[in-house]
Fold:
Amino acid sequence: MAGHKSLTQKPFLFYVLHNKRPFVLGISLLIVTNFLDSIWPLFIKMGIDQIEKVAPLSELTKTCVMFAAVMIMLSLFRYGWRRQWGEFHTTAGEHLRLTLFDHMVYMSSRFFQKNPPGELMSLMTNDIQSFRQGIGPGFLILADGIIYTIIVIPIMLSLNPEWTWKSLILLPFVPLLIWYVMNKIEKNYTKQQEIYADLTQFTEEQISGIRVVKGFGLETLRLKLYETVSKRLEAQSFKTSVIDAIFMPVMQLSATFGGVILLYVAQDDVLSGTATVGTFIAFHKYVQKMVWPMTALGLGLSYWQKGMASFGRVKEILKTQTDTPDSGTLELKSIESIEFRDVYFKYETAPNWILQNINFKINSGEKWALLGPIGSGKSTLIHLILRLYPLDRGQILINGIPHSNYTLDSLRKTIQLVPQEPFLFGRSVADNVLMGITHPDPDIENTDRRLWSELAKFQMDEEVQRLPEKEKSMLGEKGVNLSGGQKQRLTLARAYALNPQLMILDDVLSAVDTETEFKISQQLFADPEKTYLVIAHRLSTVKITQKVIVLREGQIEFQGLWDEALKNSPTLQVFQKIQNEGLSS
Amino acid sequence: MKLDQENQSGTSSIMGYGDLLKFMKPYLKRHWGAVAVLVVLVLGLAALSRAIPFLIGMVAERGFQNKDVAFLATAALIYLGIEITRTLFEFSQFSLFSFLGNRIIHEVRVDLVKHVQKMPLEFFNQNSTGRIVTRLTNDPNTLAELFTDGVVTAFVQTVILASILISLLFISVKLTLLSLLLVPLFTYLAYWLTEKIKLILVDQKKKLAEINGFLAENFNGMKIVQILNQQKKSIHQMKNLSNDYWNLNMKSVKAYALMQPSMNLLNASVVISALYLAGGAAIRGEIALAALIAFVLNSQDIIHPIREILEKYQQFQNSLTSADRLKTLFSHPQENFDETLAVESKFKGKIEFKDVTFRYQKHLPKVLEDVSLTVQPGQSLALTGRTGSGKTTFASLLLRLYEINEGEILIDGKNLLQISPLDLRRRFALIQQDPYLFKGSLKENIVLGDPTITDHHLNHAFQLVGFKDYLSRTGRDLDFKVLEKGSNLSLGERQLIAFLRVLSRDPDVVILDEATANVDSETESLIQKATLEIMKNKTCIIIAHRLSTIENCDHMIVLSRGKIIKQGPPRELLKQSEVKQELETVH
Structure:
């Protein structure tokens, strides 16, 4: 996607250009705020000088009124920049989050295999947050420090150039030290997190294995081991906090030494009358105030660094192109035939072919079974049809045309695949079943009728009626618990609600009892319009299809009619033998 | 006891600050020395910090106004001395606090695990592992944060606030009262803001949890999203969530943006009134220049502690819930381990059940009903029946993993309640269908840290089964690293480890839950060998699934819905059609 280019190359500039108003306003208001913040000690100077000279009270009143006016303005401007700046980085963060999600939604299954959900989630939350922290508060603190220095140093120089350089001589070391300490904290914190992960894992073992612990009386022993890990965590956490504790003294000591130096260098000037006591007090205040900008440089740099490291990870993902691009232009309307021609496939992580030299052709209306031992490549094969994975070699032809020439949308409307693991969303039963319907019938009654007829097809209607809130019952963690068989039947209803022409079923009734499975299958296969490719483990179920493909180690061992299959396929013969025994034992 | 769901709103808690201190008391008492040193450090630090404004005031008056050069030199040294001491104090205070905090979490953590592992099995059945683990690892952390970050900061800042007030009052009571006139107003404003921020943060956290839930669902079910052509809909949903989150973020940005300026205004009101009032007094000659400067400088420091206390107060409330949860967990009863029970070193192995009835919870149906049977020492008993007939429960009761409701269980004629469960479990060995393996080597998983198991014992056990040959054939040895939950071993291999755990221990009674799932043929033959070895000369209770195992037993019972429906010698029973039917549907 070309749109990501400027974003991935110069993310900060990209967001500045896309949020000009809050950025420019934020920075301008910050400059004014810093200016006001830098001049207020001068009012203390004026006041004290007036008091020391025993000036009339009216002069002090004037100073105080001006002082108050500046402080009120300062508050207003400070509110202004904080608000604008907040908008700048909040908007940028959310934009990046959405861009990333948009990008990932179109990636193939291969991508999700390589990047497990946990990692993607951490990218979508932690890394986005840290990027936001970098270009928001990070950049800001940096800018704040620089602007502040640019304003305060001239004021100090105008008060007294010699005092300035002498009292500030130690300050340049502060940002370096802060930066160093921050990196150290970061490293130690990572170590602490690792030990924490160890501790969590140990605790989890203790709880999951509680039957073994109790059964073998391992309580004392395991507790001792736990204590060791916990102690290690204690030590590391302590170390991290002590390094953290160095932070404040480093900041303060530089100001303190500045103050002490000032006391020495200012003596003569104040005593000889070249400088007033008020100047001394104000200057002392400035020396203290300079600690923050110096700290800010170190702090800001480290935030920025972290944010950019996070962006690097986001960039990796944004730069990964999907390997199943939706570049087809043809609309698939109906299926006459589907043909595998010399198809080869392997996963990126494994060196061996998962599928080799696959050739077969299914015509419209035919019912096929796909059999083979675990790991023979059955699931992979059916995923290829819907372009959930790209082909490494060969072609899949639908109506004689490579399936990548069709739009993904039309391909997946005409063909439905029901995977082995029943996956339902944390929504209501009705929402789950009707999920795929893009243009629901405006007549609610029709939609309702459709829902119940699909449920009835899989003998789920009565079961749904029995749920506490019927079809409106929520599923998932906070909702009702369904059995494996019920879940499987709901996923089937969901696929059938789309009324696809080719149905691919991956052992979808394994958790249903034999009798129900047989009944449902018989009913489904009776439809002459629909084409089927079905994986199942119970031979009794799939025997009612016309033809069978037997896969073994990624290659087709046999394809054709059942009678011949039982004669010619050794794999099938072993299957049959095992299943016959299983029934009688 | 069922653990609460994570309380995301985090608003209400039954626990007060007093309860929290009561909870922490034993731990604090244990470290009273450190606590005492800390109190001294905090007080010393506050006093030292207050000395600086006075010193600067004196420098201005005595040094500059009265031109006392010698005093200036001394003052510079004193200043340096104070600052260095202050830094040292601050550093030690911080380190000591974090030492104390970390030590206390460690102690709470260990106490928790010690407590929880002695809780009855019911507890582990009712609560998911994830939830228990969160309680054991997260909650102590939150508690420690609450303590070091909350209670401690509040205490330290209160001391500092008090020291500032004392300094101001010391200079002039009237000036202090006048210049602090606006403080209550701003404090109220800040309190109101912190409350508001707290609510926004709660909403924000909830929304983030919602986003996380949405993402987890979509990433896990991306295939379905794509198959059903739902990509656009998902993007749209994400957009709405992100929009809501943006709005909440902006709300908190605005609230925070108000916070600092209002604190600035408070600061300004104090400093300006101090300057004006004290200045007026100085001009009138009522107070000295040194006092004036000390007053103005002191008044500047008053904002920071007020803000900190308010902030911590708010953070506090959220964390009190986790302290509350820990308290509840600690109050949950443990298994009844009567320590006074006599130690049994050996059992003959006679087992009697007399009219035993059991249910897991009051409102649940009976799992076993009026079960009576006797197994003589050295005999083997095959337990059969369909899934859910009560076989596994039967075995658990024998190990006293649950307490029976009615009837009694006798071991060698002695009531089970009179035998220490720890001894019982040491002498009775259980082999589970899917035994749990720990992360570690194969050997460690067999020995399980028992120092009495020697290499001799191990080798003997291995020989009986032919385990070493099997390992070398599959290219592994005893140091082979087992991954979490034994995920890099097959089910058959995991069962084999369970057999070896028992064979290397020579217990008095063995309870074997035979596997129903098919294991591969190689481990299958090893397991059969091991089963025969284990049955030799020992009382054995076998939850049997294989015909060959049942046939090898001395006695057999058939359970159905918690009742014994048939019992007798296996060879006779197996001929009856009723029994056959019951067994056929086992799978």
Notes: Confidence is low (pLDDT under 50) at residues 581-585 of chain A.
